[in-house]
Amino acid sequence: MAKNAKTLSGFGPYSHIAARTVDATAFLGGGFLAYLMRFGSLVDMVERYQWMMLSGTLLGLIVFSSCGIYRSWRGAVRVELVVRIAHAFVILAAMIFAYLYFSKTGARFSRIWLGLWLINSFVLSVGVRTLAYPILNRIRSQGRNRKDVMLVGDLESCRTALKHIRKQPSAGFDVVAVRLMDAAGCSTLEIKDCRAFDSEMDANVSTDEIWVCLPLSRGLAVEKVLRDLVHCIGNVRYLPDMQGLRLLNHDISTVAGLYLLDMSCSPMSGAARFIKALEDKILAGIALLVLSPLMLLIAIAVKLTSQGPVLYRQERTSWNGVPFQMLKFRTMPLNSESNGINWGNAMHKKTTRIGRWLRRSSLDELPQLINVLKGDMSLVGPRPERTVFVERFKHEIPGYMQKHMVHAGITGWAQVHGWRGDTDLKMRIEYDLWYIDNWSVWLDLKILFLTVWRGLFHPHAY
């Protein structure tokens, strides 16, 4: 079954060596380039700079390894790797500057050179990987450096996994077999090797990857399958449903000698709340300063193309269920909701001449930067809902009120994954709760980056 095993076994070790070689070259090359930019020549380069570059390179490789840069990124989102590398560089910079401060040797090095060294190294490291991605994708499209996968589980879970794998051929995975708990569903899957899971026949299967696709609610079945596959030499992975993933991803607290899963505990407490508030104030202030000319032009356009105020105030619910007045550029005619408020069907609502475009581009949301500075909202978080609908949805959607454990955001984890506008509200809540469970400054920066990277225009925007 593992038809690519030979190719993989020969390729894997070299990829790790290549990645470390690239980064070592980036650190050294970035240092030499920084020296040239700062001092104008590499002739008679001061020896202490050479030692600093060599020490920094070795330390950088250790930090990169500790931050997971050299783990397999097969099938991962490219932006996630860039954010992880940026995270590693921040740690590296902190360690270098801490050493220079406590050793009292900082005055012996140019601060401009140090800054340029880190920036150059980051750009080179990310740049080489960016260039390598299409090459690696081409290699995988030619049938090399691929991994065979066998799916084991129920019909719907296996169907979902199969769909995602086939949508991303560049990830380098091939589903070569499916083993279902009930073979009756095999006829609905477009795959030749599909039958019921047999603990004896499949216990020692030889394949690169085995993915167990069962919801966590079928815990006994999961345990039995994993026990049957204990002797497999390939990688065995568990793919739970979204609810199961959230359950498995909670922190563990120790109270009175007991181990407790923190199922619904806000991450926004103490230092974390202060850090996020500081992040919001700084970034929102910068964004308002940079975008103020654009916002002025939009305000003029709104005023010239329709009657009424430029800004539209709407009551929404944010942190701790507290209502606030959310600001938007007005995109609908006056008294558009005189007949009542309806959720959804936004594409059929009346808009002003530029209102449709403002919604499609999400530029009508820019005044919410003011809400962020006031403390009503955050740059990143679950999108706020109208108070009248909160009362309705909290009875219809499990876990809905948990989204209010953090400040509502202008953009969020659900939005950058396409769950915005008239899309499945339950899926949006799943992504919102995942964000709350996994919050970090780096996740916020990643979401902001993805918001710009994937474009403001979106088919579900309104």
> How many distinct helices?
14
Strand order of the largest sheet: 3-2-1-4-5
The averaged pLDDT comes out at 82
- Main pleated-sheet profile: 5 strands, parallel
The radius of gyration over CA amounts to 26 Å
Order of helices and strands: HHHHEHEEEHEHEEHEEHHEEHEHHH
How far apart are the termini? Answer: 48 Å
Helix content: 40-55%
The percentage of residues in β strands lies in 5-15%
Structure summary, number of beta strands: 12
Molecular shape: globular
Q: Which residue ranges are poorly predicted, with pLDDT under 50 across at least 5 consecutive positions?
A: 1-11
Sheet/helix structural class: alpha/beta
How many separate domains make up the residues?
3
GO molecular function, one term: phosphotransferase activity, for other substituted phosphate groups
InterPro entries: Bact_transf, EPS_sugar_tfrase, Undecaprenyl-P_gluc_Ptfrase
Transmembrane segments: 21-37, 49-69, 81-102, 114-136, 282-302
Family: Belongs to the bacterial sugar transferase family.
